[in-house]
């Protein structure tokens, strides 16, 4: 990014906000500060080739909370430590002129882990389930409102005060809706995960008005998936809904399943009708019908970049080509011995194999496997059907759907720091309430055992 007047304004805003938030994080209660940081995730007010304001604020607030003694619990730390070591090993073996690019990328990814522990510690300490749900719902409402604004704007552009850096996202020319996140497929994945979260909340919601709101918001999310034109997320959403009904069939019951399916179908069909007939973002079903696969099952639109990735992975199979897949100003730089890949492989697993090699892929899979195992272990514990006791099962569902959907996109792109923050916030919330549930169950069992011993004695 060139140093324009708009960028200068952004830097001034970022500096002032950073100073104020650091002071606030240290002096004020943690809840409003963390809530503000989470709600700010989709809105990269200041972003450049070197990072975003959100990343800087995460480090500043994290440091303030560490100084206050608020960060004490570090679950899954060995896995995240190994991931960071893999990144530095991969960077050390890359070409020296690319070190800065790789280091800046590592700094961005490390902020994901800082936010993960900030969120985990807060909700583990407070157990404030209602606040967590409000944050997820409000984030969803704000993101869908922004996407609805983009739908209304169409191909037109608008910039606040005429400053391009404060402009709305530009929709794609091929009839695909963008959004707060920088890729149509990533926005669609966000909506897929939120649909499942809203469905989960509606199962346990007793108030009819609130339940209707949750289901209506879920339908709007589905409409945004249609408008994004993401074939993968559309199919993943259908699979996720089916898996959701199967996993929560006991909580739902036959009558509720029939009601949810019928109401959901009406809502989804209605919003699909609106998107297809009253907007210019109606290419999804055409893309599905026209999709062709080669002999290895790769979609026609991905064949060139996927084949190029496959060809180059064996060159550095163990440690990869370096954490950053696309260098800063890559098209304008000439680095001896460096050949750009030319794009993203649109697959997390190929992305990791290319950037950090097989050790990087194993490190990330180990982290997700450990997270999955924590959810699974908690889900096996017999308990009542209360909403908090079913959070581990929601974690299982979301993690499965996420890992499936990542076969068509990679959340680790350097320009997706905002989406990375959303995901690690989500995992932290789910893990915090999962661990709280497990601790409560075992403490209750221990107290019951003491009571029986006292009675027998």
Q: What characteristics describe this protein?
A:
457 residues, mainly alpha, two-stranded antiparallel ribbon, 15 helices, globular
Compile the SSE list and pairings.
Elements lengths: L4 H23 L2 H10 L7 E2 L2 E2 H15 L9 H16 L6 H28 L2 H25 L30 H21 L3 H21 L2 H17 L1 H30 L5 H7 L12 H10 L35 H32 L11 H15 L11 H40 L1
Antiparallel strand pairs: 1-2
- The strands making up the biggest β-sheet line up spatially as 1-2
Rounded to an integer, what's the Rg over CA atoms? Answer: 23 Å
The average pLDDT value, as a whole number, equals 86
**Into which percentage range does the β-strand content fall?**
under 5%
Number of strands: 2
The helix content is 55-70%
Number of helices: 15
| Global shape | globular
The main β sheet shows up as:
2 strands, antiparallel
**Structural class, from secondary structure content?**
mainly alpha
Element-level helix/strand string = HHEEHHHHHHHHHHHHH
N- to C-terminal distance: 75 Å
Model regions low in confidence, pLDDT < 50 over at least 5 residues: 159-164
């Amino acid at each position: 990014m060139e140093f324009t007047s708009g960028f200068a304004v952004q830097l001034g805003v970022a500096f002032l906000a950073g100073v104020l938030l650091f002071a606030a994080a240290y002096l004020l209660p943690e809840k409003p500060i963390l809530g503000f940081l989470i709600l700010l995730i989709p809105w990269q007010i200041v972003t450049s080739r070197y990072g975003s304001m959100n990343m800087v604020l995460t480090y500043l607030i994290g440091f303030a909370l560490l100084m206050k003694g608020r960060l004490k619990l570090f679950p899954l730390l060995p896995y995240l430590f190994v991931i960071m070591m893999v990144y530095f090993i991969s960077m050390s073996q890359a070409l020296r002129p690319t070190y800065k690019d790789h280091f800046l990328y590592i700094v961005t990814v490390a902020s994901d882990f800082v936010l993960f522990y900030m969120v985990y510690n807060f909700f583990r300490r407070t157990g404030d389930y209602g606040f967590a749900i409000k944050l997820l719902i409000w984030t969803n409402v704000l993101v869908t409102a922004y996407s609805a604004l983009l739908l209304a704007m169409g191909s037109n552009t608008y910039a606040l005060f005429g400053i391009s850096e404060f402009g709305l996202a530009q929709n794609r020319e091929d009839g695909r809706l963008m959004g707060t996140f920088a890729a149509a497929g990533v926005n669609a994945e966000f909506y897929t995960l939120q649909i499942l979260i809203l469905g989960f909340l509606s199962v346990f919601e007793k108030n009819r008005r609130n339940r209707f709101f949750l289901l209506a918001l879920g339908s709007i999310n589905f409409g945004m998936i249609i408008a994004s034109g993401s074939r993968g997320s559309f199919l993943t959403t259908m699979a996720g809904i089916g898996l959701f009904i199967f996993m929560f069939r006991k909580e739902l019951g036959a009558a509720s399943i029939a009601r949810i399916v019928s109401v959901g179908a009406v809502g989804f069909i209605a919003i699909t009708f609106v998107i297809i007939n009253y907007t210019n973002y109606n290419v999804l079903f055409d893309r599905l019908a026209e999709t062709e696969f080669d002999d290895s099952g790769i979609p026609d639109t991905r064949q060139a970049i996927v084949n190029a990735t496959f060809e180059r992975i064996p060159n550095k199979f163990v440690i990869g080509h370096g954490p950053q897949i696309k260098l800063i100003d890559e098209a304008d730089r000439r680095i001896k011995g460096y050949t750009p890949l030319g794009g993203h492989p649109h697959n997390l697993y190929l992305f990791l194999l290319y950037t950090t090699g097989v050790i990087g892929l194993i490190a990330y899979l180990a982290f997700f496997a450990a997270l999955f195992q924590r959810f699974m272990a908690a889900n096996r514990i017999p308990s009542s059907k209360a909403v908090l006791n079913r959070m581990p099962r929601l974690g299982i569902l979301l993690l499965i759907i996420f890992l499936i959907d990542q076969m068509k996109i990679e959340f680790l792109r350097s320009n997706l720091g905002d989406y990375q923050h959303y995901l690690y916030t989500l995992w932290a919330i789910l893990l915090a309430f999962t661990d709280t549930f497990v601790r409560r169950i075992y403490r209750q069992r221990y107290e019951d055992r003491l009571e029986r011993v006292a009675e027998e004695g």
